[in-house]
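Every protein is a chain of amino acids, and every chain bends into a shape of its own. Below is the pair of lines this work produces for a single protein:
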Amino acid sequence: MSLHDAARRALRLTARIEIVGVNPFVLVKGSQAAALQPRWRKPMPVVVVIEGPSVTSWRTNMMPTGGGDFRLYLHGEMRKASGTTVGDMVSVEVSFDDEYRNGPLGPVPEWFRAALDGDAHADASWRELTPSRQKEIVRYFSNLKSEEAKRRNLARMMRILGGDDDHFMGRDWTEGK
């Protein structure tokens, strides 16, 4: 499918920004998602434009809820550019992104890679994570600024990858997953 075809299959919807844990999202009903990609049950790569002061497009994944619906998570930069916040009604345009390639957004931060290299069990757990989960962690770690934040988050992630159960980065972790 070309980008031109994808543009013809754009979904336009108006919905309220909700939140689960710390993650703001817009619910996309299964019937709406099927208009983009029928019978899709895994994270769906999309391009999203949120109506607002900026007409920036964003590449992201809509995440399945398990019942056919999807959550279109709206990270802070998206909401800032569109001037929106949790509870707002927003108009969004979503199209399937057939050029999206999964995998880490960028390199694993050196300080995280060094910790993984020093812990075979945590490194094995890291390699078992899905590419989208690895990307989420790399993106999160890459945005940490202070050495204290890096140290604190690294220690927590290493405990989780080592098998400790915890709630971290807006999700529950069990047995390193």
